[in-house]
Structures are given as C-alpha cells and as structure tokens.
Amino acid sequence: MGYSSEIYEEAERKLERRRILSEQELDKRRNILFLRSPRAEKIEQTIAKTSVAAAKAVFGGADIKTELEALKRKNLALQNELNEILKSFGFPENYLERWYKCDKCKDTGYIDGKMCDCMKRLLRETAYDSLNRMTPLSLSDFESFSLDYYSKTPVAEGKLSPYTQMNGVLGYCKKYAASFNEESRSLLFQGAPGLGKTHLSLAIAKEVIDKGYGVVYVSAPAILTKIENEHFDIKKTESPAEQIVTECDLLIIDDLGTEFTSRFTVSAVYNIINTRMITSRPTIISTNLTLTELQEKYNSRIVSRIIGMLDRVEFVGVDIRQQKRRRQNSIKRK
Fold it and tell me: How confident is the model over 180-210, as pLDDT tens digits?
C-alpha cells in the first residue's frame, strides 16, 4: 500500500520515541540496580574496559592470543558475578540491556535495508489513526449506552416496545464485538437520527480495536470528500484513503446518505462496498435512510450489494438528542 510522506514521517517519529523511551528505561533500571549494589556498577565499568584492553593487546605486539583468552576469562567471570547479583534482586539476566518493542529490527523499522514487519504494522496503524481523526467523536462504550430513553410501550398491537427491541440490539452488538474476527458478518444500522446508531458502532469499534484489529471509523461525507480530493490531485498517482478503507479489518461508515451525491461519490461507495464484499472483510454501515431511499439516492447495484452483504439491524424509538434537550430546558425553567 502506498502512503503519504506525512504517514511515513509520523511512523518514523513513533519509532524514534520508542528508541528514546527504551534508553530512558534502561537508565532508570541501571540507577535502581547501582543504588542497591555499588559492586554491580563497578563490574559493569570493568567489563566496559575489557574492549579497550583487547584493542591494546592487538596493537601492543604482545602474545595476542594469550592476552585475549585472559581477557575473555576475566570478562566471563565478571559477567557471571553480575548475573548472580541480578538474580539475588529478582532481576532478569537482560536487565542491563535495552528492551526494544521489536527485537528483530531494534526499533529501527528495517532489517538489512528491508522494511520490518513492525514498520509495516506501524504504517498501517498510523494511516488508520489519520483517517479516524476525521471523526470528531471520542470512542463510546456499551456501559454508557442507556435504555432509559426508549419507551416500554409497544408502538402497535403485536409489536415489541422500543425498549425491548433496543435491548435486543444492544445485546446483539455486544455479542458481535466480543466474538469479532476476520470472518464476522457485515451490518447495516438503520433507523431515524438520534437513536444510538453512532454510539453503538463506536462501542463496537472500541472493543474491536482493543482486540488488536485495525479499525477505520469514518463519516460518509468526510471519507468520500477525501477520496475525491486524492483522486483528482494531479500530484498523486493513487488514493491511499480508498486503499485503507477497503483493506482494514473492520470499516465503519457512519451517516451514509448524508454526503453530497455525484457520479464520483456513487461510484466510490459502490467500489468500497463491492471490494470489501469480494474480499470478505467486515463492514458496518449506519444510515438514516430506508432501503427505498438508498436506492433513490444511489442505484440498484449498490442497494443489491447492501442487502446481500449486510445483516440489517433496525433502530427504533424517539430521537434521544431531542429528549435530552427537552429535559435540559425543563430543568432550566425550574
């Protein structure tokens, strides 16, 4: 996948912070040990001097082999003594070594000039973060989702009450997040504005991210505008945003149908949904539109993909935001 120079620079900065942090942590560990055992500090200083002694032996003209063997024995004895000191304090043998997040590349991002797997992951995560910043919402959780705003009175005879139905929706979303994997089904959150679609999709995003998956959460207007801008930017030869949303582990598109409609955006929506369907990557789409309204806004091909690819989750009730405003106004009047 191609990334912008900004993504590479941000990933390099993250690696640099990792290296600085590992060095600072080593200094802290050294200080702790040397405060407890001055002898350990003396041993480390002596071991460090053996390399200088070895160089002098090579250039000193003496019996190099005998000199180096003696230095080797001395170094080994000192190292064994140091290990015993570390063991006596319950510290591991590598306590005085730098601890890297990636031992393969030592947090440089490259091995023999080739990009390390950790760098590839970091680039992908950085790109995800960059897109997720387009959504000015903090991640919600299931615990903060309240059913108090849903009526317990059935809307019609033989129908479930909004409370009962939304309690089922909440349980379904919890189960979906807890069991999420690469083969999870895709979902269509459908219902009027203010019924909790965004809250529950963000709650799913939070749990799936915590499980270690790459999640991209975007609003339809923001991501389609970004893809269009990249597509028509003559300086770019590809559209990283479109690649990211088609390749991430879970894509969540909020407010589908609120974007400005053009031939380009309709085509982009189709390409995203179709590509993720072909590659069997889970997608969650939330929309205020009915299937009929979606077909009027887009076309039958897109609606056909949505019906065939996504399990429909219906949200019901009365706009929660309006209920909250009415309650706040009522409190102010009192």
Answer: 999 999 999 999 999 999 999 989 988 888 8
